[in-house]
Specification:
The protein is an alpha+beta fold. The chain has helices spanning about 15-25, 25-30, 40-50, 90-105, 120-130; strands at about 5-10, 55-60, 60-70, 75-85, 110-115. A five-stranded mixed sheet has the order 1-2-3-4-5, with helices on both faces. Strand 2 and strand 3 (about 60-70) form a beta hairpin. It is globular and about 40 Å long.
Length: about 150
């Protein structure tokens, strides 16, 4: 697959159907979805709150990669970095992360974190190459305020 003719744009809520379809074509992303936050309503709310930090990679007018990144004014979190399997290893994920980092830095954010399943070796290796260190001195605590959202393992 050639690297040319891939363009990038800021995601909008209008991209939801195509974005959701992409997520469901990538097993590791599909398993991270939840039935509330990843609905049209949830993603619309997320993009409205983070209008300049979510991006898509486009090839032949279709979304082939995407990153959702948001912040609370202090720290940023990366959600759902995803590249369609037919377009992996072309530098798309790297470009999406670099775009998100630049947008966050432009908003005054100095630190970013992300969550990756422990058994997702490909993603963990990618994040290591991107300069994201593994924090071993913290415990991730989780509480769902909605019965439809599983608390996780």
């Amino acid at each position: 697959m050639e690297r040319t003719n891939i363009t990038y744009k800021t995601l909008t809520a209008a991209d939801y159907d195509e974005l959701f379809s992409l997520w469901n074509q990538v097993e590791q992303t599909k398993r991270a979805l939840n039935p509330v936050d990843d609905t049209l309503e949830g993603i619309t709310r997320y993009i409205k709150r983070n209008p300049t930090t979510c991006f898509a990679a486009i090839k032949d007018k279709k979304i082939v990669g995407a990153i959702l990144t948001g912040h609370d004014g202090r720290r940023a979190i990366i959600h759902h970095l995803c590249v369609h399997p037919n377009f992996q290893r072309l530098g798309i994920a790297r470009t999406l992360v670099e775009m998100a980092e630049a947008a966050l830095k432009n908003e005054g954010i100095q630190k970013i974190f992300g969550l990756v399943f422990k058994d997702n070796e490909t993603a963990n290796s990618f994040w290591e190459r991107m300069g994201y260190s593994l924090r071993t001195n913290l415990n991730y605590r989780n509480k769902s305020l909605n019965d439809a959202i599983p608390t996780g393992e």
